């Protein structure tokens, strides 16, 4: 029997999920990452980060005399199909998914994973190894079993596996010939009220129908449809439906580069990242994500004091950071971190992020609950903070831990908050508020132009009265702060291409920070550059670069946070919402119009 346990960790992974739970599946259908009872919970599947003391943290289906595998998403769904083939012509199909569909005026989305196995040819001989760990890989959970199930006593969330395979084959990891379909359900400790085969088959049909209906309602571009659809589904899977929070990524501590200490926990909701997600999905017509996210923002900002950059998916404010000794890290490259100290930082762009994420609700008549005067009044409180903080030092969107400056991007986002409030006030016919917010926006705009544009260098700079570049300056035109053909912006784009671009990708900045000089490209920055190239008229160059970056996606079309400049290997947490937002936005800008299809 060929073991998968010694396979090196890789980000050639697929994501399955349903808005309550998510898991990462490798090319051999091995589940290597997944947390319960939610995205930020205990990773019972933690093989991706190499448990120190115990083998396992995975759910593996080993095929005897394995030869090769094939894998793809079932078209327009979050359901993953893998075929394992042996050296004798035998083949096994594995379909992995988390059930999700609409029933009884709500979504059915339990903390549950389903697997359907089917022999396709020959007499494939397999062994199933379901080996969850608990307490971040530190312990094996106790197990009990009955005639058709096995219980894994994970603290705070007992898992039950129900299957139509004999329990002993799974419990004792015995090899057997798969000669008929097998169905497996891993979820809450509840007894099924119907046959497991019927439950899985019905769930598969319902979940497939849900995803295809969701995709059918997207307003996608003519070109690169597969890439955009996959990115949209990925962003959808990163929203935690219980609260509306959107996580930056599903993982913690995938290093940004080999052997770096830049290993962070991204299983939380950054207001900035989430606003990017909302705006990208809004462009595709998937506005429900915005509605649910704004409900989340309303709950974390009830006191309307200064906003944190990030919160927990259950509205947690304190996200204490610690190192996890029981996991050695991705390919053994620790440390593994739980929590994120950025919750303590000041990042003033968050105020603009909240306002920008909210603006469409005042104008989009498709929404069931549009913004009104009372909604605007609550949003004005965010604007007051934006105005107060626009010229104050912060850690910036790159979350510097050792320095604070008045970052240009933060100031521009504070301007954007005031600017959008003025526009909303015009729409609501609130004349005094129009005057107030337009005056404040103009004041901030003038100050930024005076201090963030370096006349000597001939381009905008990272911080007021500074002299360094960073990639966030590529967003100035997209945010409406300057016109795309403004010579100052054009020269800024050119300077960034000259100084931050290496080959086909971009650094976010090159000046050393608290952890030294950056080593890998930051994928969304490359997409920002592509977008900016198109905006200043270099359309063909942008299209060529976009195609090259698309080719760097993993075999299932997913992106992490970072890419190696030389070999294009993926690094950083996975899948990264930022990166998929950049892909969608660039595709929407660059695609030929639908009229061309006629």
Task: Report what the structure shows.
The chain has 598 residues and is an alpha+beta fold. 31% of the residues lie in helices and 20% in strands. The strands form ten sheets. An eight-stranded antiparallel beta sheet has the order 6-7-8-11-17-15-14-13, covered by helices on one side. Helix 4 (271-283) runs parallel beside helix 13, helix 6 packs parallel to helix 8 and helix 11 packs parallel to helix 13. The chain starts with 13 loop residues before the first strand and ends in an 8-residue tail after the last helix. 51% of the residues are buried. The mean pLDDT is 95.
Structural class: alpha+beta
Percentage of residues in DSSP E strands: 15-25%
Count the strands? 30
Largest sheet composition: 8 strands, antiparallel
Assign an overall shape.
globular
Tell me the span between the first and last alpha carbons. Answer: 54 Å
Calculate the mean pLDDT score and round it: 95
Unreliable sequence segments: none
Rounded Rg:
25 Å
* Order of neighbouring strands in the sheet with most strands: 6-7-8-11-17-15-14-13
Helical proportion, percent range? 25-40%
Number of helix segments?
13
What attributes characterize this protein structure?
13 helices; about 30% helix; 8-stranded antiparallel beta sheet; about 600 residues; alpha+beta; single chain
